[in-house]
Amino acid sequence: MAAEAAALDATPLERPAPREIALDEETRALVVPDAADLPASPPSAVEANFARYFIADFMNPGHDQYVYRHPNGLCVVGLAPAHVAFKEEGGITTVDFNVGKSDRSEMKVTGKRKRNAQHLQENSALCKVCVNDKSFVVRCCVKGSLLEINDRLIKQPDLLNTASLPLLGVIQPLA
């Protein structure tokens, strides 16, 4: 036992190789970032959890929309900030989910298999947004099943005029 202790004491301490020092500094830089490189505020839930897509409408310039896609596959559809409805004087006055043959606001999806969900194509009308005497059709943009609409917009359409753009509908894309 004493011989082993003497052998340990006899070996000089080794310095780490320069490559190991560089690797350690790289690891430290990844684990403990420089405070100057950090953002002023943490990302919002939308920025952190959704892939954001901008849908430009080339047939009707200015009728642009957005689609936020969550990693679980659900898509959120809404009006892009550059949509012409926001540029009209007076702002959005009504949101009507009664388009075509069905009223999307009357739809009640239930169960694990999402019974009663309406199947929509990319160009299906999701709702109509009215500004004064003009109305703009909002398209689905995603082929899938409509699971939910924002009911609050029926009673409070001015929510669309706020800085944060609320969703119009939640869609589960078809596989």
Write a structural description:
By secondary structure, the protein is α+β, with helices and mostly antiparallel strands. It starts with a helix and ends with a strand. The model has no long low-confidence stretch (mean pLDDT 82). It comes from Urochloa decumbens.
Salient structural properties:
5 helices, alpha+beta, single chain, 28% strand, six-stranded antiparallel sheet
The fraction of residues in strands falls at: 25-35%
Q: Which shape, going by the Cα principal axes?
A: elongated
Strand order of the largest sheet: 1-2-3-11-10-7
Q: What is the number of strand segments?
A: 11
Largest sheet: 6 strands, antiparallel
Q: What is the radius of gyration computed over CA atoms, rounded to a whole number of angstroms?
A: 28 Å
Structural class: alpha+beta
